[in-house]
């Protein structure tokens, strides 16, 4: 960014002499930094802090050996220093901090979504092939028959779990899921000779073991660095047994062989090892799959039909929400557009309360009111009726729209009131002189004028409702579920709740690739709709001033 | 209202209150009151319901059948005595995250708005246009990528990655130059340039002008932007639920959802108590600054 030259009056005015290192130049706005001592000090301190943090991050990156990110971090650090240390380039100095966050957490993450959409990233596909191979060897293990039992204690250090073993011969060793077994010399033993604690570690008692049993059952402590050597595992937190891999990996042929059945699993090109009959090993690795996710979204039988209904409903929901809230808001604005109405202020305050109520709570509160079994509406108002306000596909959709109307009409009421009051009254009078009735005046004069100023807000409202996650997720959770699919997709799901469920959902496993592909589809839809409608309303004229 | 037709007199009408028939009154004003009452009931009923449920220590959804049948504070006591669901911590977390984020948002946004409003440079128009377009794409669209990015940051700088509130604040600051900058830019333009010029002639630097003159004159809009971003962040669920995994670090939105996510009907009373406590400060602020917010909303979207 460079500055267009700008001349200002160069009035040489004496200022408080600032003992600064900078050469004094004639005062001219916008071509030099602050030259007071305080300003320089603040600048140096802030820049120093930023640089110190940057160096710290770069050291960490160096240790993690992520060279590409390290190079980018170094470049960004240099750029920031250049922006703030050079003379001139003032706009950049004011824009840099905001733009930095914008680029990382808004622009980059969208591009990154685009990249993830073309991979099979997700549960079972979240790392490299090497990691997957060693994970399979660790995971696929069976207990060595008649092997001795090791007495075991569970230790904790800063949240990481370690197992402390005492072999039948009395040798004490310890290790964790990531650190292979090593001999311990300073362990404390109890009367029976079982090692129970090690300095620097907390020993878990029975209740703590129960509380963290899932994590403890997953620990397989490798006997050595070679996964083929096997590992020790504990089924109960007090004894452990030796396990040997039931799968052996042959690097030459890049295959896994099941020791018991003799079946061989080969790299199937889809980021997993698969047998001839198509069965896959559960641990795979991340690969690029091209347009596979997009193709899957529209062809996979468990996804295709639900996804189409979800898309249709997303449009229906957002358009209907805009129309309903705008209609009610406008109607109210007209109704109360009278100065001589008693109690107008009271009505207005009470009506905007839903808008002031935190949005995430509204859906939850309404879900209690509309609960089919115990909800207030069925129990109290309808005398114990069992109407499925949230469990019947059609009624659930209507409920969602009503709740969203409740949330959204106050905003439209406020905006329409403001717009109505800013309309010139002469038009109204002129039309009446010409013999138009109040309804005709509204339809032919007020409404068109109103729409001109409110159209951008309606577009923004559409874009907002298109991704109105809170109201859907809190009210119905997307339900009631479709019956023709095994996936957790329901009648009131909109695209954004679907993205969330596919990426972080319970039960079905996380599929980041597919979720990102769906997010990209949303992105394209919103961009297209906004572009077309903004072209129509020419709302961007403002910028051209 | 009785409708008495005045006896016909030959005298001139006395200046008295003219009685109108009920029909005429209804046609002119009565229906407006009817609409007002009906819509008001629709608007405030859920709020009354949640207040009633909060004050009813029966505690289950079934027990809240009547409105205000019993009134006690048992639910509020339970709310603060549940170590698995630390409501007080959530409240503090929400306040801290919200205040830090909104203060930083206002500051970053004001700096950018100052540059756009007072300086002319290459890329200015494109920059303004991009800001306008960026409002269309909320951050939650990229929630998967944000999660994975923070996951990667966890490996390098653990205290900025997943599970860290500071990391969440940084993510929120990605949206700092969105809606708000445009709002502030419009407001900055209403401050006459002659003030800057006068200060410059007196030898003020751009920093002094920014902090000493502009920031002081635009305080109302700063307050509005700060409040709007605070309200938005305190209601943000998607990103917060993905980033904050430990109950002790969670915000009200994530925490209160966990109350009713699994067993919607059992914890209803305690949830309602939490909802009331979470909503009251926000609503009070909103009503207190209502006038500024409304003008901000209208200015932000409507041309002119």
Helix content of chain A: 40-55%
The total tally of domains of chain A equals 3
Beta-strand fraction estimate of chain A: 5-15%
Task: Name the shape of chain A in a single word.
Answer: extended
Relevant CATH superfamily of the largest domain in chain B: MetI-like
Estimated helix fraction of chain B: 55-70%
Low-confidence stretches of chain B: 1-16, 300-304
Uncertain spans of chain A, ≥5 residues at pLDDT below 50? 1-34
The tally of beta strands of chain A, per DSSP, is: 15
CATH topology of the largest domain in chain B: MetI-like fold
- The CATH topology label of the largest domain in chain A is MetI-like fold
Helix and strand succession of chain B?
Answer: HHHHHHHHHHHHHH
- How many strand segments of chain B? 0
CATH superfamily of the largest domain in chain A: MetI-like
Biggest β-sheet description of chain B: none
| Rg of chain A (C-alpha, Å) | 33 Å
Describe the structure.
The complex is a heterodimer of chains A (545) and B (304). Chain A is α+β, with helices and mostly antiparallel strands and 545 residues long. Chain A folds into 3 domains: 22-116; 144-258, no CATH class; 299-543, MetI-like fold (Orthogonal Bundle). Chain A is built from 18 helices and 15 strands. Chain A has helices at residues 37-64, 67-85, 90-116, 129-139, 206-211, 213-218, 292-299, 304-335, 344-351, 353-356, 359-370, 376-381, 393-421, 425-433, 438-466, 469-475, 495-504, 512-537, and strands spanning 141-143, 150-157, 160-166, 172-175, 182-183, 188-189, 195-197, 202-203, 220-222, 231-233, 239-245, 247-250, 255-258, 264-267, 273-274. In chain A, the strands form 3 sheets. In chain A, strands 1, 2, 3, 4, 5, 8, 9, 10 and 11 form a 9-stranded antiparallel β-sheet that branches. Chain B has helices at 22-54, 74-80, 87-118, 124-134, 143-156, 165-173, 179-188, 193-201, 206-217, 219-234, 238-243, 252-261, 268-288, 290-301. Chain B is flat. Chain B is built from 14 helices and no strands. At the A-B interface, helix 1, helix 3, helix 8, helix 9 and helix 10 of A face helix 1, helix 3, helix 4, helix 5 and helix 6 of B.
């Amino acid at each position: 960014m460079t500055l267009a030259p700008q001349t200002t009056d160069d009035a040489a005015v004496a200022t408080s002499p600032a003992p600064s290192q900078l050469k004094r130049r004639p005062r001219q706005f916008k071509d030099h930094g602050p030259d007071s001592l305080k300003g320089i000090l603040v600048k140096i301190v802030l820049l120093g802090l930023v640089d110190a943090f940057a160096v710290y991050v770069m050291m960490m990156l160096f240790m993690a050996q992520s060279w590409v990110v390290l190079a980018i971090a170094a470049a960004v650090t240099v750029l920031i220093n250049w922006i703030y240390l050079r003379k001139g380039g003032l706009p950049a100095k004011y824009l840099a901090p905001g733009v930095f966050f914008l680029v990382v957490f808004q622009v980059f993450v969208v591009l990154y979504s685009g990249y993830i959409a073309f991979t099979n990233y997700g549960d079972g596909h979240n790392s490299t092939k090497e990691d997957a191979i060693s994970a399979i060897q660790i995971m696929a293990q069976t207990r060595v028959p008649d092997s001795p039992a090791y007495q075991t204690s569970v230790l904790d250090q800063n949240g990481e779990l370690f197992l402390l073993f005492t072999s039948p011969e009395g040798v004490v060793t310890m290790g964790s899921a990531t650190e292979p077994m090593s001999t311990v010399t300073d362990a404390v033993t109890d009367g029976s000779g079982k090692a129970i604690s090690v300095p620097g570690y907390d020993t878990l008692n029975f209740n703590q073991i129960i509380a963290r049993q899932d994590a403890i059952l997953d620990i397989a402590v490798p006997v050595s660095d070679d996964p083929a050597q096997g590992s020790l595992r504990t089924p109960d937190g007090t004894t452990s047994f030796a396990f040997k891999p039931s799968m052996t990996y042959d690097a030459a042929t890049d295959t896994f062989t099941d020791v018991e059945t003799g079946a061989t699993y080969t790299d199937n090109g889809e980021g997993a090892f698969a047998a001839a009959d198509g069965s896959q090993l559960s641990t795979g690795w991340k690969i690029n799959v091209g347009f596979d996710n997009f193709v899957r979204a529209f062809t996979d039988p468990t996804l295709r039909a639900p996804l189409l209904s979800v898309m249709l409903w997303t449009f229906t929901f957002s358009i209907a929400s805009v129309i309903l809230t705008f209609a009610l808001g406008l109607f109210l604005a007209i109704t109360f557009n009278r100065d001589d109405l008693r109690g107008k202020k009271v009505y207005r305050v009470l009506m905007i309360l839903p808008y002031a109520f935190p949005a995430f709570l509204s859906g939850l509160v309404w879900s209690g009111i509309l609960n089919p079994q115990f909800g207030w509406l069925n129990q109290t108002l309808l005398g114990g009726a069992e109407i499925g306000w949230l469990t019947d596909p059609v009624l659930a959709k209507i409920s969602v729209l009503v709740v969203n109307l409740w949330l959204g009409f106050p905003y439209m009421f406020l905006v329409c009131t403001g717009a109505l009051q800013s309309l010139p009254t002469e038009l109204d009078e002129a039309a009446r002189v010409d013999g138009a009735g109040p309804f005709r005046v509204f339809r032919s004069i007020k409404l068109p004028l109103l729409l001109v100023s409110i159209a951008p807000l309606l577009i923004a409202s559409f874009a907002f409702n298109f991704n109105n996650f809170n109201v859907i997720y809190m009210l119905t959770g997307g339900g009631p579920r479709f019956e023709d699919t095994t996936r957790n997709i329901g009648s009131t799901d909109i695209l954004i709740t679907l993205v969330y469920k596919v990426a972080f959902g319970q039960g079905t496993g996380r599929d980041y690739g597919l979720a990102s592909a769906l997010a990209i589809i949303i992105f394209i839809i919103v961009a297209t709709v906004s572009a077309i409608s903004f072209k129509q309303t020419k709302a961007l004229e403002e910028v051209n001033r | 209202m009785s409708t008495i037709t005045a006896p016909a007199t030959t005298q001139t009408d006395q200046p008295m209150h003219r009685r109108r028939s009920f029909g005429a009154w209804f046609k002119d004003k009565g229906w407006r009151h009817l609409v007002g009452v009906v819509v008001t009931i629709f608007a405030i009923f859920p709020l009354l319901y949640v207040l009633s449920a909060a004050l009813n220590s029966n505690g289950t959804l079934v027990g809240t059948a009547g409105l205000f049948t019993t009134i006690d504070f048992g639910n509020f006591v339970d709310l603060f005595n549940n170590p698995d669901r630390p409501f007080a911590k959530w409240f503090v977390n929400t306040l801290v995250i919200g205040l830090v984020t909104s203060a930083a948002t206002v500051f970053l946004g004001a700096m950018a708005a100052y540059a756009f409003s007072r300086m002319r440079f290459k890329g200015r128009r494109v920059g303004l246009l991009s800001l306008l377009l960026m409002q269309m794409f909320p951050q939650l669209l990229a929630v998967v990528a944000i999660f994975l990015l923070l996951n990667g940051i966890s490996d390098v700088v653990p205290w900025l990655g997943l599970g860290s509130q500071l990391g969440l604040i940084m993510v929120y600051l990605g949206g700092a130059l969105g809606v708000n900058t445009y709002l502030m830019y419009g407001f900055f333009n209403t401050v006459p340039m002659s003030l800057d010029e006068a200060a410059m002639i007196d030898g003020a630097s751009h920093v002094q002008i920014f902090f000493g003159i502009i920031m002081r004159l635009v305080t109302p809009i700063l307050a509005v932007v700060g409040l709007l971003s605070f309200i938005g962040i305190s209601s943000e669920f998607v990103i917060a639920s993905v980033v904050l995994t430990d109950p002790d670090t969670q915000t009200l939105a994530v925490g209160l959802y966990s109350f009713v996510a699994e067993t919607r009907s059992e914890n209803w009373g305690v949830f309602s108590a939490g909802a009331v406590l979470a909503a009251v400060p926000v609503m009070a602020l909103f009503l207190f600054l209502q006038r500024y917010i409304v003008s901000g909303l209208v200015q932000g979207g409507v041309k002119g």
